[in-house]
Structures are given as C-alpha cells and as structure tokens.
Amino acid sequence: MGQSERLVEVWRGDILESQHHGHAVICNARGEIVDGWGDPDQVILPRSSAKMLQALPLVESGAADAAGLTTEQLALACASHQGAAIHTTRVTRWLAEMGLGNDDLLCGPQMPDDREAKTGLIKTDQSPCRIHNNCSGKHAGFLTLSRHLGAGADYVDLDHPVQKAVKTAFEEITDETSAGFGIDGCSAPNFASTLSGMGRAMGAFAGAKPAADKRQDAAVRLREAMMLHPELVAGETRACTELMRAATGKVALKTGAEAFFVAILPEQELGVALKITDGATRASECAIATILVKLGVLTADDPMVKKRMNPVVKNFAGLDTGEIRPSAALMRGWG
Length: 335
Hints:
Blueprint: E1 5-12, E2 15-28, E3 33-37, E4 43-44, H1 51-54, H2 56-60, H3 63-66, H4 71-77, H5 85-97, H6 115-123, H7 136-149, H8 161-174, E5 181-183, E6 189-191, E7 193-194, H9 195-207, H10 214-228, H11 230-233, H12 239-247, E8 252-256, E9 260-265, E10 270-276, H13 281-294, H14 303-309, E11 312-314, E12 320-326
Antiparallel strand pairs: 1-2, 1-12, 2-3, 2-10, 4-7, 5-6, 8-9, 9-10, 11-12
Helix pairs in contact: 4-7, 4-10, 9-10, 13-14
C-alpha cells in the first residue's frame, strides 16, 4: 500500500504498545477531497461497505418497486446483519414472497453473531443456514433484481446480468474504472476502487436529492432506509447500529471486513471512506467515530461513541490497564 498514517494508538499505562495505520478521505458531493489522511489513490476492496452501491440497481431498475419492497427490505439489502431473529425472519419472509427459500441463496451458511440466535441453534443441535449469513439480505436483493431482469439463478457469476449491473453502477458512482475484483465472503464479486473513489461515492450518496434522477432517487432511498432501521443494518451491540442511533438520523454508516468503513452525511453533503491497513476492527471503529465527532454528527461524551473512540482496555480481573485512542494525526484541527 501507499504511505499510510498512524490513525489509532493502543496504550498500556504510559507505554504506546500498538499502533494502527491507515488511509481516510472526506469528500463533498462534487467528489472533491476536503480532508484526508494517507494515500487517497490507494486501491482497496471495500468489502461490505459497498453494499449500498451493490443495491443501486435493485432500486434504479424498478425491481424494488415492482416487488413492493419496504424500507426494512432496502435496509437489509445494505446490511451485514448478525443473524438475529429480527433479521432472519424478515429475510425468510422476503424470499417466501418470491416463492424462494434458503437453498436459492448462494451465500454460505454462517453461525449467527447474535448471542440468542447462536445459543438457540446450539441448544437445539441445529446447524446455521444461509439465511443466517450476514449478507442474506443483500442476496435477497440480488434475487429480486435477477427475477425482474428475467435472468438465471447463478446471480453471483461475474457475467450474470445482476453483477454486470452492479459493476456499471459501482464504476459510475465511484467515477473510475474498477481495477479488478475479489470474491467476497458471501461468494459475490467485490469490485475494487481507490479510496478516493469510495469517498466520491459516499459524497454522491450524501448529496443525492429525491426524484432528481433515478440514480439520485435510489441513493436517497437506500441511505434513508439505513438511517430509519439501524438495527437491521447490523444489530444490537454493533458499531454501525449504535453509532447511527447516537447520530439521530444524521449519518448512514456501514462497515466492511478487514477494517473498512464508510459514512454518508446528508445534511453536510459529505462522504467518508477509511481503511486500516492491518485489518483491525478496533482501529476502524475508533477512526470512524473520531471523524464523525470532528464532523459534528456525534459527541465524544456519548457512551456509544466513547465505547469506540476511547475505550478503556481492561484485564481479566477487570482492572483498567490502558486505552485505545485516536492519534495526533487523526485529531489534527480538532475544535
């Protein structure tokens, strides 16, 4: 990767024990970088942070309206949910409305992260299914679009009409040709972009206006669905859900695997994209919380913000041994 900056530090007592480097950009609705750290031209895989982009064709094509999708279903199409009952019952119902079921999903089975759902499976000696997969909402969206297009069942194939539509939307809203792709954890292609490309995409989502055109209207509907249903985008105890709640409708937030994060700030028409180079979630959560505090949509003393931005490190005896905190570079210009 290009030259990164130290963004997050882990202290044990008065000793700097660990540090996390990364890249981040803040872009306006015109695609201009208004602030940044590290290398904005770094090529990255946005992983699940790209789900809003992957859902654009679902709405733009008319498939969402033809299927009568609700805001809950649009939020699930953008979600990396934890397999709680509020997620799996809704995905199951969505599939059933199309006459489909678990076996029609092409994501693999995944043990739910939700404690109650996981414990329930273990107690009843059941195996997790594909509907438990954190990407099952996105895949239900793919199936909805595939049916609308009259396409085949292999909707994750790179040459399938669904993925061709996704790639077109991805390249148009990032305003660049994708450098390639990787296969994501859910078996769908994950298209690469520069960090600034994802920042431009988030700025475009932030500046989109209802009914201005199909692309902008789709972006508005997806970001508003996420902010309306933060519990469906991730789940209880998760950063996306808790920080969106703390922001009270001022930000749509989405994490991706390997320490990627994006944010959409409609009132300010700003978008954020960040990548921690070592893939540490503790660092990406600290960094995104810090940036959102700097941008005024979160307050540093909110318990849900402090939990990510300045968490205390405790040992097994419950003693405070240190803290995670943003670096001086990330804090520059504070106040």
